[in-house]
Amino acid sequence: MAAKKPVNWWLWTKMLLGGAAICVGGPAFTYWLTPTDEELFQKYNPELQKRSLERRFERQQEFDDFVTKLKEYSKSDKPIWTVQAEAEERERQQRASAQKSLALADEVKARKEAMRREAGLPVEK
């Protein structure tokens, strides 16, 4: 029988300490290096700062709408992307029907004006 090899405790200690340093130190170093939103904003030139402040409310509102829609979509049993595609299709159909109704209303108005002209009545504008 071959003799048992002795355990190299020093090697295992170094490996555990190195692994712990990488697993803990890497994310900590990344967190330390990443600038905050305020630091990034201060590095903008004044024109970009002004534009960013002007559009801040719009972006916050868009994000809130997006999150609200996601919450609504997540209530379904279907995948979110499927529900989102269905919702977009419904919106597209509603816009198309609204455009058709506007076109129809314009056509009706034009016909009424034409009939009033033929009858010699004053045309409303």
Structural overview:
It is a single chain. With 125 residues, the protein is mostly helical. 81% of the residues lie in helices and 0% in strands. It has 4 helices and no strands. The protein has helices at residues 9-33, 37-43, 46-74, 80-119. The radius of gyration is 34 Å and the shape is elongated. The termini are far apart.
Question: Can you give keywords for this protein?
Answer:
125 residues, mainly alpha
Mean pLDDT across all residues, rounded?
Answer: 91
Largest sheet entry: none
What is the H-and-E element order?
Answer: HHHH
Number of helices: 4
What structural class should be given to the helix and strand makeup? mainly alpha
Low-confidence stretches: none
**Percentage beta strand:** under 5%
Instruction: Give the proportion of residues in helices.
Output: over 70%
User: What value does the Rg take, in angstroms?
Assistant: 34 Å
Rough outline: elongated
- Say how many strands there are: 0
Distance between the termini: 110 Å
Could you give the topology of this structure?
Layout: H1 9-33, H2 37-43, H3 46-74, H4 80-119
Concise overview:
With 125 residues, the protein is mainly alpha-helical. It is built from four helices and no strands.
